[in-house]
């Protein structure tokens, strides 16, 4: 298990001011919107390792429910968001395919928490992701990504289906929308702050 640092352990000096660097993972199963989420909210040009999917991946990656997807993350996504003069979030998006799971241990090291993106039409795909986050001892919030045409979901039913603890935050977001993504991230940060007190 990787132990998460506290907020004050992440302090660094930038431009004469002490700031707190907070590492946050943005995780989820294949094709749930992690790259889109980081791209919508990062204040810098996000680092993306999106590559064109090949025919070789067709036999490995389940494209059911995500027809039209032509690219996939092969290493990670990275973005940055300054939320105050004192706190900067560094967002690390993990690849969603099972074959990239070995990268998670390194990515989880030093992370304060994780935002787990979930597709309500493919909830079962989220179980291995949540298991990994819990294995690494990270606190997390669930962000239910809204896809066009998807019906709204009952939060209680989602909680039960994902077997969440009562205090685990669940929010709905649209990963394409900066404001919606910011609200989901704010929910996670508030939860992490409450847990660190």
TrEMBL record:
<comment type="similarity">
    <text>Belongs to the GPN-loop GTPase family.</text>
</comment>
<dbReference type="InterPro" id="IPR052705">
    <property type="entry name" value="Gliding_Motility_GTPase"/>
</dbReference>
<keyword id="KW-0342">GTP-binding</keyword>
<dbReference type="InterPro" id="IPR027417">
    <property type="entry name" value="P-loop_NTPase"/>
</dbReference>
<keyword id="KW-0378">Hydrolase</keyword>
<protein>
    <submittedName>
        <fullName>ATP/GTP-binding protein</fullName>
    </submittedName>
</protein>
<keyword id="KW-0547">Nucleotide-binding</keyword>
<dbReference type="InterPro" id="IPR004130">
    <property type="entry name" value="Gpn"/>
</dbReference>
<dbReference type="Pfam" id="PF03029">
    <property type="entry name" value="ATP_bind_1"/>
</dbReference>
């Amino acid at each position: 298990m990787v132990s998460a640092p506290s907020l004050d352990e992440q302090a660094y000096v930038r431009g004469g001011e002490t700031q707190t660097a907070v590492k946050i993972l943005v995780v989820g199963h294949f094709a749930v919107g992690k790259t889109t989420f980081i791209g919508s909210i990062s204040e810098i040009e996000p680092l993306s390792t999106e590559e064109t999917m090949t025919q070789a991946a067709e036999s490995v990656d389940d494209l059911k429910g995500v027809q039209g997807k032509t690219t996939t993350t092969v290493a990670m996504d990275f973005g940055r968001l300054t939320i105050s003069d004192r706190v900067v979030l560094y967002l690390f998006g993990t690849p969603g395919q099972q074959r990239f799971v070995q990268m998670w241990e390194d990515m989880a090291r030093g992370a304060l928490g994780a935002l787990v993106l979930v597709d309500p039409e493919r909830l079962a795909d989220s179980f291995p992701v949540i298991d990994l986050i819990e294995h690494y001892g990270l606190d997390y919030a669930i962000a239910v990504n809204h896809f066009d045409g998807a019906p709204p979901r009952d939060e209680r039913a989602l909680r039960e289906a994902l077997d969440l603890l009562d205090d685990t935050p669940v929010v709905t977001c649209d990963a394409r929308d900066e404001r919606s993504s910011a609200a989901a991230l704010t929910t996670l940060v508030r939860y992490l702050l409450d847990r660190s007190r």
